[in-house]
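User: Fold this; tokens only.

Assistant: Input:
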Amino acid sequence: MSIIDRGLSVTGPFIDAQPGRFRYNLRSRLRRLEGQGAVGFRTVSRPSDVRWALVALAELHARRWQGQHTSTIFSSSSAARRFYADACIQYAERGLLDLTLLELDGRPVAGSLGFVDRQTYYYYLPAFDPSLAALAPSSLLLAHLVERAYERGLSRFDFMLGDEPYKAELGGRQVEVVEVSLRQRP
């Protein structure tokens, strides 16, 4: 099912425990975005809704990285988008998918592909509309996701790879990641 939450707030047990400046910035960002129209979150969990939601996320992702060398295969390859859709449908069927969109007047302006397994939220692939960067819709979405994970009783929020400053702002800390490649001998 798709769950739409129009009662946005920037409070909750996790957010309320953050420094005052952090809370002030979130409230300010929410007010500025609400000044542009109706704001809401849509969480997609039905396998039948995954494809259209991934298309919306891929479009945001493509706009976000357009013309930059750091774009990923997610938004630049139709074969990759089919792979993601098939994999996400399977994750949704198992109750492990978290695909959330932040909407402005019903139009996605930020989104995140995440997964939940073994008490951990995996923040895998975020995207946002770069024309709204000054309004920070991605920050509001991330705060919503962290607060929701906290309220669900998850014990860990994994930001995945990268050392971007926004991760530390929410209490993230770096851990060493080791990559192992296996191949069979010929």
